[in-house]
């Protein structure tokens, strides 16, 4: 009998972002309608909401496939994902005109300027958060589905 381990790995990977992204959408709606920002935040929100769950699912499939070779923990494997997502997001954002990279800061939507020191701090926080979420939540779902 085929137990479809890669399908179960994909489903375990998409679990977390599928649960969290509606909360992010709710937060966006509150910001959008309560404060009515002058920049179109929705342009930078819709595309990641469709890609992030797929990226997490494929990343978990990659962990399942490579775990016998690399012996990398699921938390460490998950912490590598932002290292790929940040440059990909920056490249896509600059190509779409959403993000402009200057000498000292990044400008989103031609309205919000973020110094690179903040970007580095947020990136370090994202690495830590991804490690913890992948170690405890995705690892738990992997064990529950019998693929860990």
**What's the story with the biggest beta sheet?**
3 strands, antiparallel
Structural class, judged by helices and strands?
mainly alpha
Q: Order of strands side by side in the largest beta sheet? A: 1-2-3
- Mean pLDDT rating: 89
Unreliable spans: none
Tally of strands: 3
Percentage of β-strand residues = 5-15%
Assembly level: single chain
What is the total number of structural domains?
1
Write the element-wise H/E pattern from the N-terminal end onward. HHHEEEH
Distance between the termini: 19 Å
Overall geometric form: globular
CA-atom Rg in angstroms:
17 Å
How would you describe this structure to a colleague?
The protein has 148 residues and is mainly α. The protein has one domain (5-144). 72% of the residues lie in helices and 7% in strands. It has four helices and three strands, in the order H-H-H-E-E-E-H. It has helices at 5-34, 46-70, 74-96, 116-144; strands spanning 99-101, 105-108, 112-115. Strands 1-2-3 form a three-stranded antiparallel beta sheet. A hairpin with a 3-residue loop joins strand 1 and strand 2 (105-108). Helix 1 (5-34) packs antiparallel against helix 2 (46-70), helix 1 crosses helix 4 and helix 2 (46-70) packs antiparallel against helix 3 (74-96). It is globular. The two termini are 19 Å apart. 18% of the residues are buried.
């Amino acid at each position: 009998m085929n137990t479809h381990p890669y399908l179960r790995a994909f489903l375990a990977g998409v679990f977390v972002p599928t649960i969290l992204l509606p909360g992010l959408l709710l937060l966006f709606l509150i910001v959008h309608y309560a404060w009515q920002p002058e920049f179109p935040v929705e342009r930078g929100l819709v595309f990641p909401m469709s890609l992030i769950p797929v990226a997490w699912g494929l990343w978990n499939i990659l962990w399942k496939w490579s775990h016998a070779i690399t012996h990398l923990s699921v938390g460490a494997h998950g912490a590598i994902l932002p290292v790929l997502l940040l440059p990909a997001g920056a490249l896509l954002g600059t190509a779409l005109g959403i993000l402009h990279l200057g000498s000292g800061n990044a400008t989103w939507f031609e309205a919000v300027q973020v110094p690179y020191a903040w970007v580095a701090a947020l990136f370090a926080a994202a690495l830590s958060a991804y490690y913890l979420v992948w170690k405890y939540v995705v690892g738990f779902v992997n064990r529950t589905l019998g693929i860990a």
